[in-house]
Amino acid sequence: MTKRESRLAATAGVDGTARSRDGDAHMSVWEEWITENGDLGAFEVVSTSTTANLPRPIRMQPALSAERWFTFFEPSTADQPNTEFRMTADSDTVCRAVFAGGIEEDMRPLVWKYLLSIYPWSSTERERQAIDKEKADEYWILKSKWLNDQELKETPDFIEQTSRIEKDVLRTDRTLPLFATDSGFGGGDEANISEHGLPGSSASLEKMKDILMTFHRYDQGVLGYVQGMSDLLAPIYSVYQDEPTTFWAFTAFMKRMRSHFLRDQSGMQDELSTMAQLVEIANPRLHKHLVQCDADNMFCCYRWLLIWFKREFGFEDVLRLWEVLWTDYLTDRFVLFVALAILQRHADVIIDHLRSPEEVLKYVQDLSDTIDLNDALKGAEMCFYKVRFRVNAVEQIRKSRNLPLFVSSISDDEPAAAAAVKEENEESSSADAEVPLMTFEWEDNQNSGSGEKDPLLKGDETPESDISRTPPLTSSRGSILDSNGKEMSPEDAKLDDGTTLPRISEAVHRIFAESSYNEVNSTV
Question: 232, 167 in Cβ contact below 8 A?
């Protein structure tokens, strides 16, 4: 018997039913994690009769090398030289390679320009050279507009932003040699701290200040500079160390990160609420405990998501993480699954030992510099497949019963607005937005390794485990509504086993509905 088989046997009953460490039968497929170090690292999944047919993680390939990179372009021979040097591989192939192994350091500056849409995937060498020159010229013009405007420099906004940017930059990644103090720029740390309360500067830090002020002026009509953006600039600057290129790469990055810095916090509220449902789907037991701890607002993940784990991983690992996230290979919200995988890894500790939101927050923040990046990425990939499987299974049933695939949530602190929406939905026969977000509290019985369908999908009897699910859509009078907003009898809304259907939020539905991932015949 192999080591893996021994572990599986130790967690199984006499009838082969998987059991948790506490001996509970019907252990959820989503909790069948083991921590032995194998090909898949610490997030390897036990393959049992209750485990769904899920793809194997591809995050185990070598980093993208120059040799491999150039195979994505038109071949060049002595008889037929490739004068245009145009990429022939499709962008999905390139993104899959980056997702699977990252990028070798010497190729990172070039490949990042494609991932950040500075270079079109179909561009020629001549077009890329023209883009570099055009972008450089545009940057220097943008910078000169504020640098040479003395009247602007005396305005309250400029003075305030200059102070904010200086404070943030002079506190960013100062332990790295690239950002270490150079006494030639205003003296050493001791003198500056004594006089200004801040450490000294350097050529790189001064360039970062200028880049951020240029961005503030460039983006002012939309958002401008907000505290925390310097954390997102530093890794990009470390790769290019060139003002124009760094500026445009940072600007492209901020297009997708802008919602995180909205002053009304709506972007981060969406991230955290979506994170909460992903936890509830993937690990109902953990989510239930977070509710009991009053930590289900997922504020413990706020810093993780706000600046994409910038302070949780070492600097080099941040570069590797971001280039994977930029591929959008499985979803453009893959960062949520990285967070989910880490929480899954620490779920037992959280459940067994933490009892308050403060304890959860402290524990999660103390994970900084202790997380293995490759394990987290493999785990995130498996979390994506697992949650997708469960969401798709539920949506198939909802679709077959003419029920909405997803619902929209309404904030509990807006009762009047909620009531108005409910009334409007009753009149317009649209029930999607009228109920608060409620999801899974059920035991799993997913597809087996042999490909058999879940009994829920066939309408067969369910196992003897206790299964409880949240109610279907209801009107303000408590009636059950179908997808057309019409009242249904309770019996019509039930499954064959007499239980009612869980619901998926619109945000979670869209993650998988918009996923560009295709598992069929995909190769690295």
Answer: no
Distances (CA, A) of 59 to 99, 315, 324, 329, 375: 7, 20, 10, 12, 9
Which residues 6+ apart lie within 8 Å of 373 measured at CB? 313, 317, 320, 321
Categorise residue 283: left if φ over 0, alpha if ψ from -120 to 50, beta otherwise: beta
Residue type (1 letter), 265: Q
Please name every residue paired with 494 in a beta bridge, in sequence order, or none if there are none. Answer: 500
For 437-462, b/e burial (b = at least 16 CB within 10 A) is bbbbebbbbbbbeeeeebebeeeeeb
- 165/515: higher pLDDT: 165
Structure tokens given for 109: 């500056």
Residue 488 corresponds to which tokens in the numbers above? 């249904």
For position 396, what pLDDT does the model report?
86
Q: List C-alpha distances in Å: 311 to 201, 305, 385, 388.
A: 21, 11, 27, 29
Q: How far apart are CA 247 and CA 237, in angstroms?
A: 8
* Confidence at 520, pLDDT banded by 50, 70, 90: very low
pLDDT in tens, 301-335: 999 999 999 999 999 999 999 999 999 999 999 99
What is the phi/psi pair of residue 16, to 5°? 85, 0
Q: Is residue 401 very low, low, confident or very high in pLDDT (cuts 50, 70, 90)?
A: confident
Instruction: Tell me which residue of 2, 26, 7, 12 sits closest to 455, measured CA to CA.
Output: 26
385, β-bridge pairs: none
In the block, tokens 């064959």 appear at 496
Mean pLDDT for the stretch of residues 104-127 = 96
Q: Is 47 helix (H, G, I), strand (E, B) or coil?
A: coil
The helix (run of H) or strand (run of E) holding residue 481 is strand 480-481
Average pLDDT, the chain: 76
Distance CA 109, CA 20 (A): 47
* Per-residue pLDDT at 142: 97
Residue 400: band (very low, low, confident or very high) from pLDDT cuts 50, 70, 90? confident
Helices (H), 346-372: 347-353, 357-365
Specify the DSSP class assigned to residue 25.
Answer: B
Pair 227, 93: CB distance under 8 Å: no
Beta carbons within 10 angstroms of residue 207's beta carbon: 17
pLDDT tens-place string over residues 170-193: 999 999 999 988 877 766 766 666
199 vs 52, residue with greater confidence: 199
Angle between helices 156-169 and 203-219 (to 10 degrees): 140
Amino acid identity, residue 165? I
DSSP per-residue string spanning 388-446: HHHHHHHHHHHHHTT--S-B----TT-HHHHHHHHHHHHHHT--TTSS-----------
Contact between 108 and 236 under an 8 Å Cβ cutoff? The reply is no
In angstroms, rounded to a whole number, what is the distance separating the alpha carbons of residues 138 and 349? 52
